[in-house]
Each structure stands twice: as structure tokens, then as C-alpha cells.
User: Fold Oligopeptide:H+ symporter from Polyangium mundeleinium.
Amino acid sequence: MTTEVSEEPRITTQNGKYPKSIPSIIGNEACERFSFYGMRNILTDFLIGYLLLDLVEKDRAGAAKEVFHIFVMGVYFFPLLGGWISDRFLGKYRTIFWLSLLYCVGHGCLAVFEGNKTGFYAGLFLIALGSGGIKPCVSSFVGDQFDQSNKHLARVVFEAFYWVINFGSFFASQLMPRALKHWGPAIAFGIPGILMFIATLIFWMGRKNYVVVPPSPADPHSFGSIAWTALQKGRGAGRVLAVLGALGFVGSFFLIPTLGFVASFCLALVVFLVLAGPGVMLSLEAARGTHPDEDVEGVRSVMKVLVVFALVTPFWSLFDQKASTWIIQGKAMVLPGWSILETASQMQAVNPLLVMLLIPFNNAVVYPLLRKIGANPTQLRRMTAGIAIAGVSWIVIGVLQRWIDAGEKVSILWQLVPYTILTIGEVLVSTTGLEFAYSQAPAKMKGTLMSFWSLSVTVGGLWVLLVNAGMKNERLTSAISEATGLSTTAFQMFFFAGFAFVFAFAFGAYAMRYKSVEHYRKA
Assistant:
């Protein structure tokens, strides 16, 4: 199999039509998402029921939750690496292809090493590297297929892109838990591996139709170079914040004995970005003269978008727990006597099914109606509402947990309510965020900014690990129980709801001052 593509950039005018390359990209994404969600949605059940049987039973759920969120954090951390490789060396096409092959190997490890922790975790690492590494490339690769003549079609394709992600996720969520239950982990993890190989093949077969934007040459005026110059030449508060960021980065590693390496490393990165980021903004004028004004302004635009990304991180801490915390809750609930619902993991199929219904409904009914009455649903307004709505879903899930804690037999069908509410929030945040991230980035910084969008999911996982670490403190949990009368699990659920509401308010306040821009190729 060859991966040769022309060294000359294939950039053509689309004349206002849909690009010919879109079917191949969409087909690839459908199969790849089936493979990813197929293994992801059975991971918690597999860990509790198979791989972690050497642990005391009461500790298995907590350990499975930590493994799951560390894996998800890796998936959304590696876009930084994938975006850098794509932008500087291989370009998007080659990066997607070669990392997809590693992705296939990772699936193979899960199927072969079902009883070996070292081999299984190695497979999770390769899947995180492959899935995460291609993530910023695939979404920005979609954007590359458009120019000024057909940019109005990009929103529709981005939403179709997200729709097909959920198409694959729906069938994976229904079928793979059954495969695990009836056929065992080797087959349950092997099927997603086969789908990933098919995804790679589909992507390769469409190579002649792609608009291929070549990687950027070594650029002395890149985002990182300009930020470094600003920190070096800056004075006053900017320099102080940069130094504090560096100290905070190093200091966070002293928490490894308490939090573990992954959580400590991510916390170090967050501390550095939170402090050094404003330091760059305050010192950015010092980079003028060394770097072109246009590129300096490009960095300023990216830094403003990073604030948006930071404020959306609590949403991801809520959203991703539907595949860990909500499954663990579901295992304590009563399953209906239907053959279609055999395990708690299958409840996750509700989410992609609703997404497939809500995206066209919003476009055809909700958004036109809002515009008609003068309430323009801008990107940032939708995302603000989505974060708050996600918080509401966690109030409901917390109420269900209180029923369970009181000894009531609660049907798992009650989870349909929070799943529905959370999905409404997801559609408003995720589908909008993909297009927003691409449109706000200057051309040579698109891979970088899309990587930071994915990194926001990693930070969401970090909040989960930090809260879980806090809940291991017996004095803290005893104080919570005495003060609130809630179980540790129920308290965490209400805590995350409040967490979302606080950040939804902050997001909305920042959105009111943010000025959107558009960066699409010229026709």
C-alpha cells in the first residue's frame, strides 16, 4: 500500500459546490468512530469485570474510573503532538494515514492481551496516540477542503461530520456491550480493530480527491516563536507571570505521590498556561519588530480563543463521565426485561441517537425560529447555553443517586432524562466548537489551535481526577457526609453541576466581549 501524494499543494477553487473529497472523509470518520467508541464504551465494564479482578471488589469501580479517564486524557492530549507533526513535517494527509496504522496495532493489542495488564495498557496507549494524533488533523483537513467560494457549506459539513461520528457511536454502543457479554473481550475488542482498518483503507482510497495543503516550512514567526520572544523581551507583570508559570509547572510534579504522574503532568501544564498565557498577552507588543505585525496579531487572536477553550473545560469533565460515573451508577439500577437492553453500558447509545435527531432539528426548526424572533443563536451563545444545560443533567443524575442511596430500586430508564439533557448541551457545545476553533485560527496556526481545542477535553479529565483524589481523603468525605447528609458519590454529582454553572456564567461574560473572525482560504 502506497501513501504517495503530490508534493505540490492540490488547492483548487470549489466554485461554490461541495468538495468531491467529503464522502471519503465522512466514510472514514464513520468507521473510525465506531472503532473508537466500540472499545471506549465497553472499557469500564471490561476493567471492572475482567482486568481488575485482582483488586478488592470495592476498589474496582474507582480504579476502572481512573484508568478510563487517564486514557481519555491521553486521547485528547496527543492532538498537540499530531498537530505539530502535521503542521511542520508530514502534512495532514500523511499524519492521518501513518498514525491510523498505529491505531490499528493498538486495537490488536487489546484483543490479544485481554488478560495482561502491560499488553492491554500498551494497546490503550497506541489507541490514544493514534486517535488523539489524528484528531486535529481530521477536523482541520475537513476545513481545508473549503475556500471562500463554498465556505457557507462548511457549517453543514462540520455538522454532518459530527452527525456521522454519532452514527458510528450509536451502533458501537448497542453492539459492543453485547459482544463483550456473549463472546468475550477478544472478539469485542477485535471488531473495532477491523473497523479501524476499514477506516484507514477508505481514507487511502480517496487520496486523489483531497485538497492537500502542504506542511509549513520552518517558520521563525510561528506561534511558539512569537510567544517565546514576547516572554523574553517583556517586562513587568508579563515577565513575573511567566516566571510564576515556570515555577508552578515544576512545583506541580511534587504532587506525583498523591495524584499520579498523568494528573500531575496535566496540572503542571494547566498551571503554566494559566499564568504564562496572560504573561504572553501582556508582553506581546515587545515581539513587534522581531516578528511581522500580522503574525503578532495572529498570536493575539489565538490567545483570546484559548480563554474560550479554558472556560469550556468543565463541560468535558461532565460529559465524559457518562462513560464512567454514569455506567457505574447504571450497574446499581434495575434493567428492564427487554432483550435490547442487556447491560448498563448500552444506555450510552441514547446519546448518539439523540445527537443524530437534534442536529437536523436545530438547523431546520430551532435556529431559524430563534432568528425569526430576533434572538440570534451565535456560536458563543450556543456554547454558553450548552455548558449550563450540562449542569442541569448532573442535578438530575444526583437526584437518582440519592434514590439509590436510600435503598430504592430505581429503573435504569430514569437515566434517559439526564442523558437527554446532557445531549442537548453537547450539541450546543461540541458541534459549534469544532467550527469555531477552525474559523478563528490563522492559516498556519490551524493545527495548533485545533490541538488546543482537544486539550480542553484533557483538562476536563483532569478535573475529574482531582475531585476523585480529594474524595479519597476520609476526613473530607466524613465532613461532607455530616454537613450535607449526602453520600460521596451524590455529593460529587451535585458538585460537578455547580462547577458547570459557575463556568457557564464566566463563559457567557467573556463571550459578550469576544469579537469573532473568519479565516478561510481565498477562492
